[in-house]
Amino acid sequence: MSFSNVLRNENQDVFEKIFSHPFVQGIGTGDISKEALAHYIKADYEYLNAFMHVYGVAISKSSNREDIQLFNQQIDFVLNSEVHPHNNFCEHIGVPYEELQGFPLPPTADHYIKHMLYHAHQGGIGEILAALLPCPWTYLEIGQELLDTFKPDSSHPFSPWIHFYAQKKVNSLTEVLCSKLDDYAEQASEEEKGRMREAFRKSCQLEYAFWDMAYTQEEWPVGKEAVR
Ligand SMILES: Cc1ncc(C[n+]2csc(CCO)c2C)c(N)n1
Biological process (GO) annotations (predicted)? Predict the structure, then answer.
């Protein structure tokens, strides 16, 4: 079995918890509060900025053009395509996207980006890929699950979001990251593979926690007002 499939299998428990989370199920039923959607968009906009920084660090550690090309393609997707699912949520709640940008991250999203940046700076390309992979992989499977279960048509408020993540392009972006991770895993020591497994699992847990953060509209318990 490939290393990426080992990672996927040993995190089946967390993937299932993500599919059944009330925010994710709410995308399927079309029923989520406007406040939770706005909270999600505010945090995700900043999260995606940090995600591109992680790809930037990966580019700086790349030793060949094939890897640079792969990370560049992922940045292009985040920059130019991921605005579509965000716009779907924004249109639904009737708030312009621009009004939800530039907010400080709540604790869980802050934890998630710092976890990825830690592996970006401390690890090699294999470890960075392991930390990044749950991000497209969980969204691809959420899209596929919601498409199969709810079969949204054009009257469904989140049909564009569901179709976006269930699409072939997200599948191929995930597959290419998996096969690159498998290449690096073949050369990696047992210790390095241990760090990859740890990074992957924590990102899965943080994907779950991110949905929960948006659903509960998590804030810092004290000192929320910015100090300038
Ligand atoms: C918290 C959070 N996790 C995952 C995604 C989805 N996503 C982010 S980047 C990317 C492309 C992979 O390079 C995909 C599919 C999101 N928007 N927010």
Answer: thiamine biosynthetic process; thiamine diphosphate biosynthetic process
